[in-house]
Write a structure and sequence with these properties.
The chain is an alpha+beta fold and 929 residues long. Helices cover 30% and strands 22% of the residues. It has 25 helices and 38 strands. The longest helix is centred in the first third of the chain and has 28 residues. It is globular. The two termini are 48 Å apart.
Length: 929
């Protein structure tokens, strides 16, 4: 581990200037950043990128150096038996690049490590120094914006490496490594192979699961009120000034009418509320008795309205607003922001601070004066000094770069880069504008029914007399029904006692709603408010829980899978501390104490892993003890079982997916079914569907029973092979090889599980069918992933219909092979839906039906619809998100290699590679376990 004491000064850093002579090698993280910076530094500097991290702990056994392979801790990559020293290896794909960096370093006089100015960037710089082992002076070059002035200033004012930040980052890495490498194997053994657990990812998954549990336990309550439309009768100024305005019934005979907040999650009125619940009959009866009644203004309450500007963006608020306004995921937002930063448009995008530098404040105020006028500029600059708890060091808010800001139109940007820059620019400029001011009004209206009941209605309004910063920027809302800050609702200028006329009275029913599912924006907000994890990691955490299948999206909502329920259930019951919200937040506090030099990492790591007493003298159970003691106690079946309340049905999470079990009767559960939608009625509906496990008869040739099944990849037929009385001797592998494999075939498109017959099944199991022999090679008809076709050696021809597999003759096959093979595609099918324009390419997005299901395309990029996406309901924003994710995953295009000069070489024979035999086996379904 690096020393925990800083090199100098309060923050473990020391400023110094760089001599103006000699040549310096500047190392940054990314090639794009290197290219931009090289243009600003000019002669005397060689700028190269490390292409991210150059080394890390080994991820597989083959990467562990030979001298450590026998160590019991080697699989962890951390010497837990010593002083928790991590074992670092250079990534296999970085070895040649490290060699290149060493060669470059041999020709320079100084090394400047210019990685990002945060803990991860400081750690990358330390790893570079440790691996390159420079014998020349080494300095840290830091900046938070990539402009010519900032880069040249950073090169002149370098500092030492801040080893306290390195120690904090390394402790975090070790902590995450121990958590993942100790707990993940428990999930593999007890739930499903290839799962993962993570210090923050598991807690984030638990939050999503708990919200779904709340929705599942929720009981809706019905309540009614009246909606009225009033106007001012007569010819007064008030009557002429405003149209009719709406109002809602709020009280009857002085008792408040119940609204949604008065009910519990169980659908009953809260005991402490003195309210009156109206049902439909009561509401309709009251409306009838108020028909023709006279109404008057009971009271008018006016309050001044004032709204101050929002603080400039930090990482999490940028992610939330980009989700609300631009439809970007957290991952997409950070990818776009990274490009804007590296190309010099915005400041560093991983920051917890809302502070603006003096030059940025002046730039923003200058644009306010220029674009909106002096009336919108406050007398004094606004200061946003507040940081979130444990904010990282020396960072500024996310803002446009430079001492003068470029307007969005002048940047030349397009697509998501333009939209995100515009968002940052507007927010920054608006943060230096005056408050919005106005007046809010509440009018209470009273009327008496024919039975003498006094009904009270309420109407609210808001008038903005000076828009201030709202001229430049209005923040979005997570609640689509909520009014935004710039929304006005005008009411007529009425006074107490003024008569009103009810144009319309309508009973209106409502139902309480379960808590809304998290979106990416609201989950980021929740994690930050609970102080769980670092804001800079939230995008990758969200990506992980989506990629692992713990969560899927329905629109923008994050829905937990049943797999997530099983994983969270295991962690809660046996590793409760590890997914405890407060415990996870306290870990962040400790890591920040280490970064500030107020705590040592080694004692804390020992206590976390082996257990011991905390500073208050309380005994803490260590991670190793938890795993060792609990592993044998975990019942996989119990952990993966979720009883359906009020039934004898149990949902189980199996190796091939979720299924329902009732006294041995099993049925698969659709993977895109949200857990709160699995009601008693839905379960009975699934059981009522044909199970597909239907015996069709006996094959007269083999005597084996033929069955039709519903599998993971669709319906199929197979034969049942009885287990031999005596198992083959030898290893498990040998016994498996000796066991005959049943013939299996998917149903044709024209077939269904309900109607497939034994004759159909035997025809399917006869495939591939031998048609005859051509040119000394056997011709077969078979069904493939792209449809029916004929095969002759390595040559093939498509068949028009599935029926031709059973009827095509040798002569017809000869004619097909005599024709040139069609390389082009068949005529494209019409799109299933036409959507809006893709923000990146500008092309129209289409939803099409492909070989592997529906997908969205802009003509250049194709992206399959995910679990939870529906052709009929997919939005433009979701389609654009899928395309953006597909672009991000696409491999970078390699430059065309130059052809070497032709050389005369002796002809050599190369043996044709034999195509590997296609594996056959029975598709499994969840309910077959």
């Amino acid at each position: 581990m690096p020393p925990t004491k800083g090199s100098a000064g309060k923050n473990g850093s020391k400023d110094s200037g760089r001599p103006g002579t000699g040549t310096a090698l500047v190392i940054v993280e990314s090639p794009a950043k290197a290219k931009t910076i090289a243009g600003y530094l000019g002669r005397g500097y060689v700028v190269e990128s490390s292409i991210g991290h150059i080394r890390d702990m080994p991820t597989k056994a083959a990467e562990i150096p030979a001298k450590y392979k026998g160590q019991p801790w080697a699989r962890l990559g951390v010497d837990v038996e010593g002083d928790f020293e991590p074992l670092y290896v250079v990534n296999a794909d970085k070895k040649s690049h490290v060699k290149k960096l060493k060669e470059l370093m041999a020709d320079v006089d100084e090394l400047l490590l210019a990685t990002d100015e945060d803990r991860e960037g400081e750690a990358i710089a330390w790893h570079l120094m440790e691996e390159l082992k420079p014998k020349i002076p080494v300095r840290r070059m830091v900046f938070n914006e990539i402009t010519k002035e900032a880069i040249q200033r950073a090169a002149r004012n370098t500092r030492d490496l801040n080893t306290r930040l390195v120690s904090a980052q390394e402790t975090r890495r070790i902590l995450d490594r121990l958590y993942g490498y100790e707990v993940s194997p428990v999930l593999w053994k007890k739930v499903m192979p290839k799962l993962s657990a993570g210090r923050v990812q598991s807690v984030a998954t638990r939050l999503v699961v708990e919200r779904e549990r709340e929705r599942m336990a929720f009981t809706s309550a019905e309540y009614w009120d009246l909606k009225a439309l009033f106007d001012v009768p007569g010819t007064s100024a008030a009557a002429a000034d405003a149209p009719a305005f709406p109002a809602t019934l709020v009280a009857v005979d002085g008792t408040r009418v119940a609204v949604g907040r008065d009910f519990t999650a169980r659908g009953v009125l809260r005991s402490d509320r003195d309210v009156r619940q109206l049902d439909e009959a009561a509401a309709r009866g009251l409306a009838e008795r108020l028909a023709g009644a006279g109404f008057s203004v009971r009271s008018v309450e006016r309050k001044p309205y004032r709204r101050s500007p929002y603080a400039p963006f930090r990482t999490t608020t940028l992610q939330q607003e980009a989700s609300r306004k631009l439809g970007l995921s957290a991952k997409q937002t950070m990818q776009v922001a990274q490009r804007l930063y590296e190309n010099g448009y915005i400041t560093y995008m991983r920051t917890d601070s809302t502070t603006l530098s003096d030059s940025a404040v002046n730039a923003a105020r200058s644009q306010v004066r220029e674009l909106y006028g002096a009336d919108y500029l406050p007398d004094k600059p606004r200061v946003y000094a507040k940081k979130v708890k444990n904010a990282q060091e020396a960072h500024e808010a996310i803002r446009p770069t430079g001492d003068t800001f470029r307007t969005p139109a002048s940047t030349g940007l397009s697509g998501p880069e333009f939209r995100l820059y515009e968002l940052v620019w507007k927010r920054t400029v608006a943060s230096q504008m005056k408050d919005a001011v106005g007046e809010s009004v509440t009018v209470r209206i009273e009327g008496t029914s024919s039975d003498g009941e006094v009904a009270e209605f309420s109407a609210t309004g808001k008038i903005i007399t000076f828009h201030g910063f709202l001229k430049a920027y209005v923040e979005g809302s997570d609640d689509p029904a909520a009014d935004l800050d710039d929304r006005e609702r005008r009411l007529p200028a009425v006074a107490e006692g003024d008569p009103l006329k009810a144009q319309h009275l309508e009973p209106e029913g409502h139902s309480t709603r379960p808590p809304a599912r998290y979106t990416e924006a609201t989950l980021v907000k929740e994690l930050e408010e609970r102080e769980i994890g670092r804001p800079s990691t939230y995008a990758s955490i969200l990506g992980t829980i989506l990629d692992r299948g713990y969560v899927f999206k329905k629109g923008t909502a994050l829905v937990p899978s049943f797999l997530a329920f099983a994983v969270v259930q295991l962690l809660e019951r046996h590793f409760g501390n590890l997914v405890d919200y407060e415990f996870t937040a306290r870990m962040e506090d400790v890591l920040d104490d280490i970064a500030r030099g107020e705590a040592e990492s080694l004692p804390w790591l020992r206590r976390f892993y082996f257990g011991g007493e905390d500073p208050e003298g309380h005994r803490e159970t260590g991670l190793k003890e938890l795993v060792d003691d609990h592993l044998a106690d975990i019942d996989p079946r119990e952990i993966s079982s979720l009883p359906l309340p009020g039934t004898d049905i149990v949902l189980r999470v199996g190796r091939y997916g979720p299924y329902l079990d009732r006294d041995g009767e099993r049925v698969n559960v659709p993977e895109d079914l949200a857990p709160d939608e699995l009601t008693k009625e839905k379960a009975e509906e699934l059981f009522a569907q044909p199970s597909g496990d239907r015996e069709l008869g006996t094959d007269p040739e083999t005597g084996r029973v033929i069955v039709a099944k519903s599998g993971r990849f669709g319906p199929y037929v197979t034969e049942v092979i009885e287990e031999p009385e005596e198992e083959a001797k030898g290893t498990a592998k040998a016994r498996k090889a000796a066991k005959p494999k049943p013939r299996t075939s998917s149903l044709l498109k024209s077939m269904s599980l309900d109607t497939v017959t034994l004759e159909d099944a035997l025809r399917l199991l006869s495939l591939p069918r031998e048609v005859g022999e051509l040119d000394g090679e056997v011709v077969t008809a078979q069904n493939g992933r792209f449809g029916p076709y004929l095969k002759k050696g390595t040559d093939s021809r498509s068949l028009e219909t599935e029926e031709q597999m059973f009827t095509v003759t040798l002569e017809q096959a000869r004619e097909l092979f005599a024709k040139p093979k069609q390389r082009g595609r068949r005529a494209a099918a019409p799109p299933l839906r036409e959507l809006g324009k893709d923000p990146v390419s500008g092309a129209t997005m289409l939803v099409k039906d492909g070989r592997f299901g529906p997908y969205v395309t802009d003509g250049e990029v194709n992206a399959s619809l995910r679990k939870g996406d529906e052709v009929e309901s997919i939005t433009d924003e979701r389609a654009a998100e899928l395309l953006a994710e597909r672009r991000a995953k696409a491999p970078a295009k390699k430059p065309a290699a130059k052809k070497p000069a032709a050389k005369k070489t002796a002809a050599t024979k190369t043996a044709a590679k034999k195509a590997p035999a296609k594996k056959t086996g029975t598709p499994r379904s969840a309910a077959q376990e």
